[in-house]
From TrEMBL:
Protein name: Holliday junction branch migration complex subunit RuvA
Similarity section: Belongs to the RuvA family.
Subunit structure: Homotetramer. Forms an RuvA(8)-RuvB(12)-Holliday junction (HJ) complex. HJ DNA is sandwiched between 2 RuvA tetramers; dsDNA enters through RuvA and exits via RuvB. An RuvB hexamer assembles on each DNA strand where it exits the tetramer. Each RuvB hexamer is contacted by two RuvA subunits (via domain III) on 2 adjacent RuvB subunits; this complex drives branch migration. In the full resolvosome a probable DNA-RuvA(4)-RuvB(12)-RuvC(2) complex forms which resolves the HJ.
One MF term in the entry's GO annotations: four-way junction helicase activity
Length: 222
């Protein structure tokens, strides 16, 4: 199983990139959102990957974070949602947006993705709502790689994940920390996830403390 690729981008298309990893080119399908965030040809990049196996086809799909990769895996487990459909949803909402939409039961947001009908959106929300707290708690650091770290040895294919580096908390990390704090206070995963998602939807750039305060207001008895 190929879980992560790090190399140089040789070519960009409308729905995939060709990544050169030590002389071997890998075609990796990505969402529109991920494609827009990737650098141009000749520059270094890294993606977490999921290998989709069919009877007559092998395809690699790439994601900037493990959270997005996990959402892709869960989306494709829903009846009627294929790999391209899952990419369309992630491209429209992003991992954080999808987490909030599913935690809030927001079928309209899921349906806004190209090719997703109301019945499919309803099925996604109903089947995955219980999974949202776990995914939100994962946080997620990007699988980026600097040019200096680009591979040169032709004997290996997959780079080990880089050691964690201190970085300012991302929106997803803040939501994960807030979710963990609420769990420590005794709130159930589902109600905590809903409250954090509501707080994050109103203030996407809020830090952990602000999300906790806002979520607690929503969880307080009337």
């Amino acid at each position: 199983m190929i879980g992560r690729l790090a190399g140089r981008i040789d070519m960009r298309s409308t729905d995939h990139v060709l990544i050169d990893v030590r002389g071997v080119g890998y075609v990796v399908f990505v969402s529109e959102r991920t494609l827009a965030a990737l650098p141009g040809p000749g520059e270094a990049a890294a993606l977490y990957t999921e290998l989709v196996v069919r009877e007559d086809l092998l395809q690699l799909f790439g994601f900037p974070t493990l959270v997005e990769k996990e959402w892709f895996r869960l989306l494709t487990s829903v009846q009627g949602v294929g790999a391209k459909g899952a990419l369309a949803i992630l491209g429209a909402l992003g991992a954080d947006g999808l987490s909030r939409a599913i935690a809030l039961g927001d079928q309209a947001s899921v349906k806004s993705a190209k090719g997703v009908g109301p019945k499919t959106a309803q099925r996604i929300v109903l089947e995955l709502k219980d999974k949202a707290p776990t995914i939100m708690a994962m946080g997620g650091a990007p699988a980026s790689v600097t040019p200096a770290a680009a591979p040169t040895d032709e004997t290996e294919v997959i780079e080990p994940a880089p050691a964690p580096q201190p970085a300012p908390p991302t929106s997803g990390a803040s939501q994960a920390e807030a979710l963990s704090a609420l769990a420590n206070l005794g709130y159930g995963p589902s109600e905590a996830a809903t409250a954090v998602a509501q707080a994050a939807s109103e203030a996407p750039d809020a830090d952990t403390a602000a999300l906790i305060r806002s979520a607690l207001k929503r969880l307080a008895p009337a």
